[in-house]
Amino acid sequence: MRVIVTGGAGFIGSAVVRHLVLDKEAEVLTIDALTYAGCEASLRAVAGHKNHRFLRADIRDGAAMETAIATFRPDRIMHLAAESHVDRSITGAADFVQTNVVGTFTLLEAARSYWNGLEADARERFRFLHVSTDEVYGSLGETGLFAETTPYDPSSPYSASKAASDHFAKAWQRTYGLPVVVSNCSNNYGPYHFPEKLIPLTILNALVVEGHGELFLIQAPDRGKPLALNDQACRRHGRNILRQGVAPEITLRLRCQQPVRMCGSAADPHHDASVLDSPVRVEQLRANRADIRTQRLGDHNLQPIG
Known about the structure:
Blueprint: E1 2-6, H1 11-23, E2 27-32, E3 52-56, H2 62-72, E4 76-79, H3 86-91, H4 94-116, H5 120-125, E5 127-133, H6 157-176, E6 180-185, E7 187-189, H7 198-205, E8 217-219, H8 220-227, E9 241-244, H9 252-263, H10 279-284, H11 297-300
Parallel strand pairs: 1-2, 1-4, 2-3, 4-5, 5-6, 6-9, 7-8
Helix pairs in contact: 1-8, 2-4, 4-6, 7-9
């Protein structure tokens, strides 16, 4: 199995790369622009591995993407490259539009060109996995779960850009027949998390961030495995959508309290919450929960690679 992983030097992407190379013995080409959140140190475990190659490139560079895909000749493209920090999207949305929307469009076009040139059996095996977020569905109340039929209702520039990229990915499947799979996952945490994100930021500052609701979190190493899918990926009722939820649910507040206790610190009630408490960010901090029942392999006839 030959797999291209975009954004592979990022938090979730590096977990996917490590899983594919070390656990599944897949041949992997990691593509990453190494912007502020990309870090080659997260790939140290596969550095020099015979099955891993690294390419520093921007997904918006159509010529570079076409060359990389045509040269590597993947069976899968797993597209994780994205701007993903909600607070940054509020203060600077342009980068999110460029990377998440224009970059996804560019990659889809490069993948379509490659796929059109494949032999029939290779075309049948090929998959383009577009990794997104459950934040495209907006916010929930005290109860309920997101499902495949939940209408899109993004409430930040970040989630709007990811919703747009989802629509492009699905449109390329419906219009051109490109075999696309879309994954919408709950919030993630774990090793190699970028320091601006909530859990490492909490640890670094030994504070509890007093939110206006609860986010639900899933460890990134657990996410890497169901993202590695075989030819039958997400073909339930002709749908190409995978929801990834959380079981058991772990609230943002509870998860923050754990590192604070470990650091022996108390919550600071006077922390700077100017961005966190903005109307848009308050909306983002309300519950984001995907129905875990649509994550289980049996529900979608999914199998891990290998």
